[in-house]
Amino acid sequence: MTLDPRFRRRLPLAAGLVLVLVALGAAFGYGRAATTPLWSEQPIAVAPATVTAPDWVALAQALKPAVVNVSMKRAAQATPEALDPFFQQFFGRVPPRVQRGLGSGFVINADGYVVTNNHVVDGATEIRVKLADGRELAGRVVGRDPRTDLALLKVDAHGLPTIPLGDSAALKVGEPVMAIGNPFGLEQTVTTGIVSATGRVIGEGPYDDFIQTDASINPGNSGGPLINARGQVVGINTAIVSRSGGSVGIGFAIPVNLAKPVVSQLASAGHVTRGWLGVGIQPLTADLAKSFRLSQTDGALVTSVNAGSPAAKAGLKQGDVIVEYDGRPVGRAGDLPRAVAETPVGRAVPVKVVRDGKPLTLTATVGRLEEAREAKAEPAPGEPALGVTARTLTPTVAQQLGLREQRGVLVVGVNDGSRAEAAGLKAGDIIAEVDHRAVASVEDLQQALRRHPAGAPVLMLVQRDGDPLWLAVGA
Length: 475
What we know:
The chain is of the alpha+beta class. The chain has eleven helices and 27 strands. The protein is elongated.
């Protein structure tokens, strides 16, 4: 699966994602008076009352003038030969090569504010914004947010046509949508389709929550709007799955509800302030839920708590299941980072957890994320299971293998078709706990398995590449 490099980097699709809770910070109405909003949410007047039979002709005529072509230049990295003094004495100094890129964007404010993707303008030394009326203006980056792949540009113009922003939370699977952009440099191209899915996790980080659509999206559509039948932007087109570089009917858009607070902060401050709790989390499987004495898989399972973090100060512990944050239920692990995304730094919020099968309410004061604090995301575990070759991990063995952990049981091999393989256990994993009890040797592991009740999944805490991960090995 590959993507055209002009469009988006390769996407690592995964069944799930261990989400590191480094959430987007406080977000609403930054630096602009309530009487002068940055964007409008008023539906287009020509839009029909029902979403089942949209008038795409009228909507395209009304909205195309607000969609722009974004082109940019960036200096390419010089080759080693070009930097070599020996090479230069014969051929002279080689001028830096220039890379060019194309993308799309749309105007949200009549005074020249344009939303696009970060990857469209990342590293640009020159940006040109071509309007639908043929004018080509210099673009200035107001702010960029690589984590959500959003950027806000400004052009020196007034009275521009705009597109209103809608509510992506109201989207329904099967609902018709329209994409407008500049695929392969073909300006003002309109395609239609439906919402194929919402809440897609595609391995792009802790804020994965993409809209999937079969509306044709190709290289050059990046940064363009995905529009509902009311003529409102519900997503920003950003990625495709493709083996050929062209559309195969699987495209992804950033939900506009995720973009709104980001764009507000970019307009007022030029950057995004992020909150930080300092916990690693993963989704709950049915067997994990059973192991933690839960009747359902709702919630986010805590895999780690950073020392000195807001979560640690609040009393959160490894193995807690966060089921509610600031009064909002956590239906799945991916809901939690986006909930914290709306929390101002410094605000105290209630966090409801289930610990040892009992409910508990804690209070966490959200901190400010420093980039170095963010841990690496890991895939979520697969379905559980056991059958491994293992050895006791000693400091000597750890030193020989270059491992940070000094104690536990090192998984040397996993049998094909075994319970362990089905659970997602891998060679190189270090088993640290079984059923909430530490294991320091193969003998400890064997005793723990003998003590374990028959017919129930075995709960294991393992270390994988330095990060903790819960696994439930099926009976």
